[in-house]
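Box S2. Input/output pair 1.
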Amino acid sequence: MTCRDEVGASTGFPPIVSKDARVLILGSLPGQASLAAHEYYAHPQNAFWSIMRELTGADGDYTTRCESLGKAGIAVWDVLASSVRPGSMDADIRLDSAVPNDFAVLFSSLPNLRLVCHNGKKSQDMFHKFVRLPDTYAELRFESLPSTSPAYAAMSFTDKLRIWRGIIEPELNRSVGQ
């Protein structure tokens, strides 16, 4: 399986999702290390999995970490299904070739979803540019989190973790239907 089509577009992955997900974390589009490994957030300096280990205990191999997210009520996906992206930086994403994922289908399959978190500003900007949701999703809360990318070095891991924890943990600790 390759994650590049015949015109050089990067193609994302299916979501990490369980039917009980209450929180969805959205990235932009997998970078080169993730595409090569066929795993979300595979770059060794990306803080995503370290933060998830702190929040949910997600540890071990990729499959085990993904299962831990599902048990904790966290889903992961990207805003874009595909786009030409010649490098790994979000700035490399060519918006003129961007194809968004189908969020209406995903959201309709997640009856307990309450919080959508953007892993970085680019995810948030692209979601607002490309995704139109019906009013039936007006109760969803959207939050922008500091990027876990190693390219975002303006904030320490400790500060990123504090912000992620402050936004995500209250939703994970809330009982379903509350």
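Box S3. Input/output pair 2.
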Amino acid sequence: MPVEARFVDEYLAQHNAKENTLRVLGDRLKYATDGIPVKPRSGKREHGLGDRLVHRIEPRDVGEWRKRLPERSAWHITKALRQVLAYAVKQGIVGRNVASGDYVPNPKPPRREIRPFETWEEIEDVDVELPPRLRSLAIFGCGTGLRPEEWIPLRARDFDLAAGVVLVQRTFTYGDLRDSPEKGKGARRRVPLRSRVVEALREAGKVGPGVDPDALLFPDSEGAMLDLQSFRRNWWNVAVATRSCAAI
């Protein structure tokens, strides 16, 4: 049941959000305008809403469409459609939001079970499976507890080895780099470093004398910040495929 692409473009053009947020929202709305991918990377789509005028979409259309969405993404995609149709109601184009919870349930997916590492040896075994540019990442991530959006933008200059801390000052999410606030949620902070973590970073040539202070701690193959989804798919999941551990 595709929703008119023209109307979605109108909604995105007036929506007040950061460029990266608009990009993510636009990608999710393609499931409504262009249809649902038949196979990953196939380029073929079907079962969209985009060939219909907004005022001709019925709750049953949305319900049938939602059932075909990827299980882990359905909640986010349906939520994006609700935003568009809420805009249509606000503009007086339709009298009701047929994607709202009153018509189409949109339950959040259950959280996936996290299977933690049991020993440092398991962590080190995974670490050696990573390419040289990512070496020590498993040890660093587990040893500090930093979230991916916090360790992806880290550079050598963010480490104070004399004090034994790393300074968390930025976040990187979906291509959006932001400075952390001085106070409040997600504020800048100093995270203590275990001796095992410092040793691993030194051995990997990530910190210490002679290291470029502007060098990213864990860059992608082009020297830029990692795309988390690509990293998980191409490196992390492969490295831990036969081990009991958590997904970073």
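Caption for Box S3: The longest helix spans residues 74-90. The two ends are 36 Å apart (CA to CA).
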